[in-house]
Amino acid sequence: MRKHSFAYSLLICSGLFSAWMSPAYSADRNLSLGERIDQLERAAEARGRSQVALVQQVDELQSELREMRGVTEEHDYKLSQILQRQRELYQELDRLSQLIKSGQNMVNNQVGSQQPQGSGFQINTNPSQSNDYAANLDENQAYDRAVNLVLKDKRYDQAIPEFENFLRQYPNSSYQPNARYWLGQLLFTKGELAQAQTHFSVVADQYPDSTKRADALLKLGMIASKQGNTAVAKQKYQVLLAEYPDSTPARLARTRLAEIE
């Protein structure tokens, strides 16, 4: 027992001597035990504050990264929409050209056969009888003028009254859902969320067969999220995922839904 006790005492003395010989101990050897404990506690508190600040910085960086990803996805989505609309315009112009040629041929045939007056070719002006193209040339020109202000001229503020005038002048147009979506998008970009929500809701609720309905549901979810209405945002995203699971808007909705859940 004495041997063990003596060895233990030697170890303690050796440890104390080593600590006494260290620079930190030598610098603070005149401090009392309580003062040294205070120093250790202050050092621990400073280290804890540094760790908390580091964690906050990491959280902020992660948040900024998510925002950057969201902006990138939004830009990709807008680009895909522009490209899609350009393709639609080319298709519409091609159909218009075919329609005009068809009308000219029918008129020429009727004149050649000297059919009675009043039986000539008439363009159908009832948009409900045309799936995706209006037969009224004035209507087409008014719609294309509004769209071109967005796609070609980039005159977004002037495009807003053009679309508003189109909606008033042609309430039964087959272009109504597209025009309302464009108008909602312009207002959404300007931050006029309430007005944008009105137009997107019309597209989503009144035009179930519209190609813009999925986009309108996405924008309704985004508006609700911006307004702090998480429940409505989730509901819009879930409807979009259920009805258009493979669409581009659905992919964006999955990302946004994951962020708020």
Folded structure, characterized:
With 261 residues, the protein is an all-alpha fold. α3 runs antiparallel to α10, α8 (213-226) runs antiparallel to α9 (230-243) and α9 (230-243) runs antiparallel to α10 (248-260). It is built from ten helices and no strands. The two termini are 66 Å apart. Residues 1-22 and 106-132 have low confidence and may be disordered.
Write the layout of secondary structure elements.
Layout: H1 2-21, H2 23-28, H3 33-113, H4 137-151, H5 156-169, H6 176-190, H7 193-206, H8 213-226, H9 230-243, H10 248-260
Helix pairs in contact: 3-10, 4-5, 5-6, 6-7, 6-8, 7-8, 8-9, 8-10, 9-10
Précis, in short:
The protein is mainly α and 261 residues long. The chain contains 10 helices and no strands.
Question: Features of this protein?
Answer:
single chain; 261 residues; mainly alpha; 10 helices; 79% helix
Query: pLDDT average, as an integer?
Result: 75
Classification by helices and strands = mainly alpha
> Spans of 5+ residues with little confidence (pLDDT < 50)?
1-22, 106-132
Radius of gyration: 36 Å
What percent strand?
under 5%
Q: Tell me about the biggest sheet?
A: none
Helix content: over 70%
Put simply, the count of helices is 10
**N-to-C SSE series?**
HHHHHHHHHH
Terminal CA distance reads 66 Å
What is the overall silhouette? elongated
Beta strands, count? 0
